[in-house]
Amino acid sequence: MLSVARRSGRSVFTQTKRFISTEVLSLRGGRSSVTGVVATVFGSTGFVARYVVNKLGRVGTQCVVPHRIYSEDRGRHLKVMGDLGMIVPMPFHARDPESIAECVKESDVVINLMGKQEKTFNFDFFGSNVEAVSTLAKISKECGVPRFIHLSSVAADEQSESTWLRCKALGEKAVLDYYPNAAILRSNVIFGEEDKFLNNMAKWARIYGYVPIIGSGKNIVHPIYVDDVAEAIRACTYDDSYDGQIVELNGPEAWTLPDIANWVRETCWIAETSRIRRFPDLSEYLPESLKHLSPHNMVGGITDSYLGLWPSDVFGPMSMLGIRGDFRALNCNSWTVNKRLPQIDSFDIVPTKFTEIAPEYLRNYRPGGHFSVLHKKEDVL
């Protein structure tokens, strides 16, 4: 259990528009207050982490934000998310135990948001989602860090055909080996202003004139807003009652990828100038020995091989929808809600519909760009 001083950090939930818990202290403050919690956020330069660090730093939590060695500028935008000295950038390498120990030795909680969706020169899917995660958990345990929060995927499965999803499941297992009481949050497909999901659909439709869908297109996803994911992580940070639980973070609506692609095309006003190109899954109609000849397997395999030649840290072709170099990741039925597990309402969070948020940043892909709404009004008049 956390000490009384540290548990007072739970009161920070009263400082936002959302109310996470009814059992909070009356302490009020802001970024100049001190919650008494030190959190190390690995993956701090990524998509989800900027929202998490902002939510922690704005209420006076000291955040250690590890960054790649010689890449300190990549985390510069995080410094304004907390008061002076409360956002602490530190260099580290995922295969250097000493640098990891320096980042976590003073921490009350380690939050792992690492889980790259593409291969690089130094790390493949296993290296970034299993090997690195296992090292973080091991070193954190050795340094005496009492709590560990891990962000995983709803579709994580050791038996999945997707390499990325298998690695996500193995990453969870590695964390639990060292922290049996770790809080594990499994998110669905995440959308937000910097996402590689809706933005990719809009880019394909705007630049190439079509949105590629590999597979049957019948599988269901529940897109979740990145701010809702960050809110859940913040709740776990200040409340240890979530330790030892696996909680799913699903969005409020069920969509198929073709339906989402159609909505994106209509939102960007390019439905007439773009289309959806499908590479169907005919595996169920083919014998086992010929399943590799199914159009989606052939195109997906070619795509994965092609993208594998262009690691994400060098210039290369735009990634296909989903995980870069793993077409099977979104082409499965594992993104549905598991009702046997606690859901996002455990945090008293009402998930946001992407149809309410996404138009704000997808309008940049409309003909005319940011001012397209004004031009359209003039045309109507």
UniProtKB/TrEMBL annotation:
Annotated ranges, domain NAD-dependent epimerase/dehydratase: 40-235
Domain of life: Eukaryota
GO molecular function: protein-containing complex binding
Any Gene Ontology CC annotation: mitochondrion
InterPro entries documented for this protein: ComplexI_NDUFA9_subunit, Epimerase_deHydtase, NAD(P)-bd_dom_sf
SUPFAM superfamilies referenced in this protein's UniProt entry, alphabetically: NAD(P)-binding Rossmann-fold domains (SSF51735)
Protein name as annotated: NAD-dependent epimerase/dehydratase domain-containing protein
Lineage of the organism: Eukaryota, Cryptophyceae, Pyrenomonadales, Geminigeraceae, Guillardia
